[in-house]
Write a structure and sequence with these properties.
8 helices, 2 domains, Multidrug-efflux Transporter Regulator, Chain: A, Domain 2, 9-stranded antiparallel β-sheet
Amino acid sequence: MKNLFSIGELSKLQNISRQTLIFYDKIGLFCPAYVDPENGYRYYSAAQLDFLDTICIMKRIGFSLDEIKSYLKEYTLDTSMVALRKQLTIIDRQIEELQLIKSRVEHRCLQLEQSAAIRSQYAEVSVQTVQSQYIVWQEVAAPYTLDRVSMATKQCFVRSFKERLPVFFQSGAIVPLARILRGEYTLASHAFLPIEKCSANGVAELPAGQCAVTYHTGDYLSIGTAYERLLQYCRAHRLQIISDSYEFALIDYLSTGDEAEYITKILFYVEDAP
C-alpha cells in the first residue's frame, strides 16, 4: 500500500522480528496505522518510525516495556529528564554490581590457576601467618549431616544475593575442635561464605594470626586423613590448637562435577604449646 510499510518491510528496516512487532501490537505499545480487514495484515506509516526508534532506544537503555508504555502516553521534556535521571541511578547500580561480579570471577580464576600447584603439595602441612578476613555464616541444623551443611550454605548464598553482599564465589565450613578430636570430621557447626569487610549483620571477622594449614583433595567424606595429618603435625611441633577448624572450598561443585578434583583448605589457629 502507498506510503505504508508491511510488517515484513518494517521488520527488515528496523531489524526487529515480526513476532516482536505483533507482541507490541497486542500489548498496545506500538500498533499498526492500518490493519487490512480482509486478511488482517498490519501496515505501518513512515510517521511511526520515530516512535518505534524511541521504544527501541528506551528498551536498549534498560526500561521495561510497561515503563515505556506508561512513559509514552504523555511525555514531555520534563518527564523525559525525570525518567532518564532515574534510569541513570539504576545503571550506576548495575555497573557497581557488574564490577563486583567481575572481581569475584577474577578471584575464582586465580584460585583455579593455582589449584595445580596446591594439588602437587596437598599432603604438606605448614604454619602460616594469615591476614584478617571476614565471613558471613549460617548455623548448621542437627544432625549436622552434609545435606544440612549444604542447606546452610544455600541460605548464605540466598541472603548474599538478596542483600547484595560482597561475597566471594566460594564456600566454607566450621567444624568444632571437640568433634574433630572425636573423629567426627564432617560434622560442621556452621557454613560460611568469605566476604569483603562490610557492616552487614551476621558478618564475623577471622583475625590475623598464626595458623596450621593443610589441603585435602578428593571427596569430602575422606577429609579425615587430612585432619589426622594436621593433628599429628601440631603434636609433633608442640603447637596448641586454639580454635575450631575453618575449611575453605577452593575447588568444589561450583567448578567441577568430578569430586576427585575437589580441593579444601583446612586451617587451625595455633600457638606454641607452653
